[in-house]
Amino acid sequence: MGCFHSKNVNHTPGYEDPALLADETPFTVSEVEALYELFKKLSSSIIDDGLIHKEEFQLALFRNRNRRNLFADRIFDLFDVKRNGVIEFGEFVRSLGVFHPNAPVEEKIKFAFRLYDLRRTGFIEREELKEMVIALLHESDLVISEDVIEMIVDKTFSDADTKGDGKIDDEEWKQFVAKNPSLIKNMTLPYLKDITLAFPSFVLSSEVENLET
Amino acid sequence: TAPVTMNAFELISKSQGLNLSSLFEK
Question: Is A38 in contact with B24 (Cβ distance < 8 A)?
Answer without folding.
Answer: yes
